[in-house]
Amino acid sequence: MDKAGGPGYDSTSASSAIVRFVELPLSIPYERWAAGKPAAAVPGSDVGHYLPPKPISSDAFFKDPDGELGALFTPGAGYVDDLEPAAANLAQAAVAEGADLRCRCAVTSLERTGSVWSVRVNADELLEATVVVTAAGPWSTAVNNLACIGDEFAVNIAPMRQEVHHVPLPASLRRIPGGAPIILDLDLGTYPRPDSDHSLLIGGTNPNATNWRGSTSRPRRPRPDLGSKPRPVAAPVGSRTSPSRTGPGTAGVHDVAGDWTPVHDRTDAEDHYVAMGTSGNQFKNAPVIGRPMATLVDGVESGHDHDAQPPV
Hints:
Shape: elongated
Number of helices: 6
Order of helices and strands: EEHEHEEEEHEHEEHEEEH
Strand content: 15-25%
Number of strands: 13
Distance between the termini: 28 Å
Radius of gyration: 22 Å
């Protein structure tokens, strides 16, 4: 849901009760919902304007809203429900296209000699290539550091601790025809979505300074003192009471850019490219991102000046 008048939202439609259906140039259908429409479409939701996001430990978290939100609705949107089989399917598809995979191994060195990159894995196998693309998720910066790549980056990219919590799916969301939607509420800094076990997964979009990590080691469990989740769940889906029970939740690390925008580009190192800073939300986009990355690599390797004439 977008703050009326905020980025991506046409403030002139906030006073209109008409839902307009338009199509982006990419032929992705979406609707702009005026204030009032989101609450009707998602019964029990709290669509008040509370920006900026506040921690649950703050009294300001419980203050009354000073307005009402509209929304941008994409009927064809979805999410990856089970990452393990999805990753296995992508890996099998890549192998079918000629990919040679190395699993459960660590990159220990990355060096360029002449026109050839040498990538050593597990300290005992040397792979050579004329072009290297770093797309190592939270490990991307560490891999680049092996070759002293990244000093020219204009944005900081580093691992960030992230966590999600599970609570019972509210009855109001169970009754929605077609199933409960995913809600990205930047106003409150949360994103709830239904999970396969009839629960509600709640994550956060509000970076906390204590979340940045210098290590990619996986946190063992969520910390209940961070963020504005899962209490109150109503924050955007219902009453202002804590859930009666929560699931174990999941903690991990994301590869986050300082401006939360993925970086798909060439670097100052010859024949080296990156697809990083994905902020944990690009797994589902990976097959799509591969095509523009291939176009970028082919163009630059063929002599195109990507910096002087970037694609529009």
